[in-house]
Amino acid sequence: MSTNKASFSPHCLAALLQTGDNLFPSGGYAHSYGLEEMVSIGRIKNAEDLEDFLKDEVLQCMANLELPYLRYSQMAAEKKDINELLIMNEEISAWKLTREVREAGQAQGMQLIRMIKELYDDEWTECFAEKLRSTGESCQHIVATALLRNIQSVPQESSFVSWIYQGVSNFASASVKLLRLGEVACQRVILRSLESDSFKKTISKAFSVKRNEAGWFNPLLDIASCRHELAFSRLFIS
User: How far is it, in rounded angstroms, from Cα 194 to Cα 49?
Assistant: First the structure.
């Protein structure tokens, strides 16, 4: 596997820990990422169902869509290629087929852009954000994460691991309310998801996906998202 940086320093590790910590205001706590409706329709009933869902569906989406776009966005950020980033930002939005999921990605992306400005005051990132504002577009979370990881000089493989961990952790966190899972059960789900062959295959696959082949279609999650938007009551935004 190749990475965009030669080495992984203690500084990179500290930066990943800070921006992946629950104290860091990412906005992820407000979203269930489709889990709420999946529980509502009876697709996920317990910890075992959640674990299978993460391995069979969530990690597959990451491997084929999210991580490849994170990879190529990070490469564009390293080259300071605003036009390429704008194209990828538009493509990522297009791949989010439902309004709820698309707006969730935009909300988290813009929140992360604001935090980058507050913490790093990176001039080039601000130029990119200004370009987005001039076109009336919002920054998707994947692109904003790529900008952040480039500033932090984080290798792509480490960016992948962080993205996977945060994604799995977000689902586990939402399951506390939706499935009434305890802390130990949540940690078991996270551990098994990250220790599984699926985790290794996810990273390997993400490095092999070509630029024009990145994408993933999961009608079950899209339908769940559509239903969630019109639900009578709900705990999460999306």
Answer: 16
CA distance 129 to 235: 31
Percent of the chain with pLDDT over 70: 95
Average pLDDT over residues 205-224: 90
> What's the pLDDT tens digit per position in 110-138?
999 999 999 998 899 999 989 988 888 89
What torsion do the CA atoms of 108, 73, 84, 117 make, to the nearest 10 degrees? 50
pTM of the predicted protein model: 0.91
In 3D space, the residue among 200, 197, 181 whose CA is nearest the CA of residue 189 turns out to be: 181
- The arithmetic mean of pLDDT across residues 205-214, rounded, is 94
Between CA 28 and CA 2 the distance in angstroms is 29
How much of the chain exceeds pLDDT 90, in percent?
56
Contact between 74 and 207 (Cβ < 8 Å): no
∠ Cα 7 10 11 (to 5°) = 95
Give yes or no for a contact between 110 and 124, defined as CB atoms under 8 angstroms apart.
no
Burial-class residue 139 by CB neighbours within 10 Å (0-12, 13-18, 19+). buried
| Residue 224 burial class via C-beta count within 10 angstroms: exposed 0-12, middle 13-18, buried 19 and up | buried
